[in-house]
Amino acid sequence: MSRRQISLAFCSMLAVATVGAQDQKKDQNKEQERLATCGVVMNEILNIPDNVPREVLDKAECVVVIPSVTRVAVGVGGSYGRGAMVCRSGAAFNGPWGAPAMYAIDAGSFGLQLGAESTDLILMVMNRRGVDALLGTKVKLGAEASASAGPKGRHLEASTDASMRAEILSYSRSRGLFAGISVDGASLRPDNDATEEVYGRKLSAREIVTGSVKVPPSGQSLVDVLQKFAPYNQSGGRQ
User: Taking the complete model, does pTM exceed 0.70, yes or no?
Assistant: First the structure.
């Protein structure tokens, strides 16, 4: 091989490496922006007058935020979205809110129920069984983890006792309307590729939730708003 051919080959390899690095950085920026958006959505929802009851948020072990869930096919009812889950730290989930793990949801018809193209979805994980289910692989809501449309308003009424026994309480916001909504049939799973883009290394959702992983800058606003509105776990150790 001539010197010119070697030079051309080297330049080609360098170009491929540069493009690969640029693509990786682009992916990281996209996932970091998505995580930052989760903080914006959570803050907006907790500042509207008729939002998640304080008793629900105080007793939640984890919170999943999926911004802009979209329909994947008109008339079919399938939806897809990506976001993050944040849990309280400590073995008993009674410490400050910890680092976020990225999550994805698919299927279900919650987007169509409100007649919207895009819906922000909030899931409150209310006990240890719900947390354990979500820290595995894919979990089907309503089957492998009990789910119910969450109550809303300033205070809970006695009639909501049944819904409070669910492992997951779900809410949606679309076109300014915030309400409890059923997500039965939807599948929720850790988004390990997105998590790797955010942290720059492979981490499972379980490692993040049960470990001492540092909160990334893009996730700080989400953690801060939860810490502001619900700093202490009032669940009483629900299993």
Answer: yes
